[in-house]
Design a protein that fits this description.
19% helix; alpha+beta; Umud Fragment, subunit A; elongated; 3 helices
Length: 181
């Protein structure tokens, strides 16, 4: 009987530890905004890797899709795309994005937009993020830079509805910048 109880207790502890680790690394969200259309739609469910940007693991890259805490103090979390990294200059002229004075091709932006945003340098420990549906997105072009501490994690899969299941492509704009230099 002692052997059975010891084994049972070990299995319970293992499950509790596994679940605790799982939920500290992985989180699911429901998309509730239209700011990332047509790539993400209201009602879709996504999985976020919260460990992807832990200091000793990695940093956000241009093109990554992230979940972030709303900088406005709202309790909502936002879904956005990383555009500018610390030290980058970002400018938008009549709907055309420039990073470090290089015109970017953005295949994930399907709807044209016309606003402009004056050239700015992204400060250390901050990021410039935009929604894919630029004209309606509440993002860095409205409220400025995003502090790294506000980033929750990297989106890596859409799992619901099942017919939309897919790995989330991250369009790394670094290749365009490297080719221009």
């Amino acid at each position: 009987m002692k052997s059975f109880l010891r084994e049972f207790l070990f299995e319970i502890i293992f499950v509790v530890v596994f679940v605790a680790v799982w939920f500290s690394v992985i989180q699911t969200y429901e998309v509730f905004q239209t700011s990332m259309e047509p790539n993400f739609h209201e009602g879709q469910r996504i999985v976020v890797n919260k460990a992807a940007y832990w200091q000793w693991i990695g940093n956000p890259k241009r093109g990554d899709v992230i979940v972030l805490q709303a900088p406005s103090g709202s309790t909502d979390d936002y879904l956005k795309r990383v555009i500018g990294l610390p030290g980058d200059t970002v400018e938008i002229t009549k709907g055309v994005l420039y990073i470090n004075d290089v015109k970017m091709d953005e295949p994930y932006v399907k709807r044209s937009f016309t606003y402009s945003f004056a050239k700015i340098t992204v400060p250390e420990d901050s990021y410039f993020v935009l929604g894919d549906n630029r004209d309606i997105s509440n993002d860095s072009h409205r409220w400025g830079m995003l502090a790294r501490s506000k980033i929750i994690g990297k989106v890596f899969v859409i799992y619901w509805p099942l017919q939309n299941w897919e790995w989330v492509p991250n369009f790394h704009l670094d290749k365009q910048l490297a080719a221009a230099n």
